[in-house]
Amino acid sequence: MLAVAWHFTTGNSQAAGAPLEIRWHGNGIILQGEVRDAATQRVLAEGAASRLGGEADQVVDWLDIVPTALPVADASALAELIRLGQEGWHLQRRPKDGWLAVQSLTDERSAKARTLLRTAFGPGVSMELVALP
Predict the structure, then answer these.
(1) How far apart are CA 60 and CA 3, in angstroms?
(2) pLDDT at 64
(3) Class in CATH terms, 3-131
């Protein structure tokens, strides 16, 4: 059975917004953190459902909607990254920077991920690819 687990952060998030984290593992995806609006939440849930075979009833939605959350410049690009991701990938986004851990820094999938990261978070956020151990 495929599953997506969405976890929310506790009330101790800073005014600048809680980090956003995405992990691809097993037959699921874990998204943790906050988004600014229901539209972004819906697009990310749809991306996760699509990645898992399009079965939306397998998405458990616990992602907090908080107006002060870190901005996502293009939720569709982030949803595409969710669909593109592979087992073991791990994204961590903080207020000014972040990283995506991938198996290879030079393959075609990682190159596409780099482009999607820039589009998803915009030019004000430095997003780097790092190699998984």
Answers:
(1) 8
(2) 87
(3) alpha beta
Here the tokens at position 89 are 């990938």
| Domain boundaries of the chain, sorted by first residue | 3-131
Contacts 24+ apart (CB under 8 A), 11-17: 13/66, 15/68, 16/68, 16/70, 16/95, 17/66, 17/68, 17/69, 17/70, 17/71, 17/95
- Do 62 and 6 touch, CB atoms closer than 8 A? yes
Rounded to an integer, the average pLDDT of 44-68 is 78
pLDDT, tens digit, 9 for 90 and up, residues 70-98? 999 999 999 999 999 999 999 999 999 99
For the chain, the three-class secondary structure string (H helix, E strand, C coil) is CCEEEEECCCCCCCCCCCCEEEEEECCEEEEECEECCHHHHHHHHHHHHHHCCCCHHHEECCCEECCCCCCCCCHHHHHHHHHHCCCCCEEEECCCEEEEEECCCCCHHHHHHHHHHHHHHCCCCEEEEEECC
